[in-house]
Please model this.
Amino acid sequence: MPTFFTHTLAIFQKDLKTEWRTKERLSAMTFFAFLVILIFNFAFEPGSPIMQSAAPGIFWIATTFAGLMGLGRAFAIEKQNDCLLGLRLTPADPGAIFLGKMLGNMVAMLLLEALILPILVIFLDVEVFAVLPRLCVPIFLGTLGFAAVGTLFAAMSMNTRLQEALLPILTLPVLVPALLAAVESFRGILEGDTLSDIFPWLKLGGAFAGLFGAACLLLFEFVLED
Amino acid sequence: MRRPYIPAFVFGILALIGLAIAPYMALMYAGMEKDMGFAQKIFYYHVPSAFMMYIGFALCAIFSALYLYKKDKKYDIWALCSAEVGLLFCTLVLLTGPIWAKPIWGTWWVWDAQLTLTLMLWLIFVAYMMLHSYSEDSLQSAKFRAVLGIIGFLDMPLIHYATKLWRTHHPEVVRGEEFGLPLDMKIAFYFCVLTFLMLFLAILFKRVSVEKAHDELESIKSEIRDRKAILGQLGSD
Amino acid sequence: MQYIGYMTAAYIIIWVAILLYFLNLAKREKDIWEELQGLRATLNRGESTPQDNV
Amino acid sequence: MNAIELSNVTRRFGHLTALRGVTLSIPEGQTFTLFGPNGAGKSTLLRIIATLGKPTSGTVHIRNIDVRESPEQVRTHIGLISHHTLLYDDLTARENLTFYAKMYGLKNKSESVDEALLTVGLADRHKDRVRGFSRGMKQRLAIARATLHQPEILLLDEPFTGLDTAARSLLSDMIFNLRAKGRTILLVTHDLAQGLTLSNHFGILKRGELVHESPTENITETELRTIYERHVGNLTQG
Model:
């Protein structure tokens, strides 16, 4: 099905180009995530062991909330001039539209994560860089699961009275397994675990991303149709 | 004009009979567990509630999938009602769980796999109900709810696995195992499960009949709007 | 009589919760039927004297 | 071959019936205007023809293709212009068109885009972001977007809403152009005068029913107004 991926790629490129041009989404997300980390520093004793053991949680809390903000924006762009209607008028499969938007969100999230990891190192004094290659695996899986569920629910919440306000209410409870897997993997790696030590968590993260990636791909059609 | 809804009535009678006998089964017939004492008796109501919660949410997922496939309003009604009744029993599980945990574990809330799963399901289906109330168009809301119902159901095994795995990092709490029990307790337990099933079905059928009446009301309202418009049309000629 | 208080509390909560739900359901049903009756009445009146355009 | 053929199309949204048994044939090359007050079901009808919604019952054929069976194929024959531009404000004119060219799977993307930009007179502004365009320019680009894949059928959903006089006359010129090229056009509007001059056939939709259908030949605006008012009621109300 090559046309399917042509459409996916076209939407993905379009989103990247828009983002590159304005940089409004990513900068707002990063700034927000930065503030979250900062607030945590005020809430707890900076540099204390508690902070270091809380680092994985703080990282994912910052990523999740900034990510939810970005997801809302991603569909606001499509709603602006009724662009989503334009997309639906093209011969593209709803699945391709979903995948394109999801990839765009995922790249935005990955960039955000790359930007806040150094902040984490500076503020919380955690040794992230030594284990970075290993760390990428659970972060990737967590982000994939988040982007899949988040993209579907963002498209839904845009059409309710609460708009973006409903997005965290819908997304967070469903996301619990993925977040738990991401946080626990992160913690394990910081404590010196290898990938095989945290394999059960990676399996969970992978299962979540795989299952919901597929389910959301199929269900997106019903969210789009009249 | 007010037609009795037969299944709700039949299951209601059965549930009432069961409920009249259930306290006897739980308190008198079943023996006393020596460590937990009366606290163990909470299980005869707590665990069947949990079963009914699962049945409710599973039915919601099945009817949701049917709705998306067939787009027939009646499946949406059944999905919505199953979710609501499932949520009722979910709430019961969450209320009675801590009451059992306090004397046995010494704390109201423990992040044990089962409790955490129940809490997450409660949150997901409360979100489901919010989606129902905050939607602008009922047809779209039905589709969105169906999507969430299916996602929530798929999430169940993952949440369960996640919290199980998570707990191994923390002191393991031993749960009262209700199945390796003496025969008298087992019989009492299954009696209560059956009674709760009747109760569940009675409430569900009742809830569906109310929702159908509501649906009928809405269609009569829109018919009246139509007629008024036609009459107004004739008047203006 | 170990923990009998907890058990009583749990049982009471279950029954109160189910009762409350049932009362709520009954109220919803009553409201629907009342509205339906009202509409039927206006509909019958509407047949003889045309309503204003809405 | 009829460009658009609807037979007994009914569309219900829950308890609301938006369309009741609409039967309509539009032959190729015809310019058909659909009049009707707000809430008559005009947009619903247009969205069904554009494959965005499925009819509850009845069949829709676009160029003999069943909309229910192969909506993707139908979409390549259809272009839609609405009062929204369907354009991305932060992309340039060229990028917008190139994106849609990719989505429609066009073979000669850059040539088609060049040609489309030239036709709507935006060739010199192709590198500028749409955000900075005037309403008229945006509407021209929207027309270029809708006609990029050379659709045989054009659907126009209240395209004049929010346009100034200059943009309006430009748009009607473009519609005449497309009409001259033999395109089938379905225009939905409640502007009687505008619809009458542009089309050679018209219909009136009222509360989901097609209550009138006839050619526009020999019909003056006053006559049209009388017909419309007879079916729909006093015009000043709507």
